[in-house]
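HUMAN:
Could you generate one sequence with tokenized structure?
ASSISTANT:
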Amino acid sequence: MRQRIVESTARIIGERGYAEASVARIVDDVGISQGTFYRYFETRQDLFDIVLPTYAERMLTFIQEHVDAESTGIEREMQRMKAFLDFVADHPWFARIVDEANVQAPAGNDAYFDRVVNGYVRTLQRAVDRGEIVGYDPEDLEGIALALLAARSYYAKVYLSSMGHVGKSRDAVLKGYRAFVERALFMPPCR
């Protein structure tokens, strides 16, 4: 039941925003009473603060399942991006949850960014350790992770906004992302 409430809330937030995700709307969507809702969550805010971290874990698991463990360098990064776009296509409301969370669910937003950014930094560090990324200091990796996450987020919005309208949007997004990331990370620095 708890999971059903979280899933319903995620869809409602994605379609209408956090402000319109009232307990009444959520329980109506799930088909439960408000009393049942409050057995699982003390407040609506408690629910809001777990929605984004819950879907962050789902997203990260999905990406991990769609990346070949043997791939390296730019090919590995492109597999991650493709999996991210596939996740976003399956959960088109995810971008709105992320966008509004910093104001409407700050604790959930902090947990999301802590998990996602730190995970990406570890991923980049492994690429550095394997010699796939060179020319960056370890303290640069958090800034790089943030830049790549911001690029992914924006690419996802463009991709979602053109779904059903522009058949080649996915290819264009992936081509642009590859050109950017390949030059920024996976080419040796000029001397």
Notes: The radius of gyration is 19 Å. The chain has a mean pLDDT of 90.
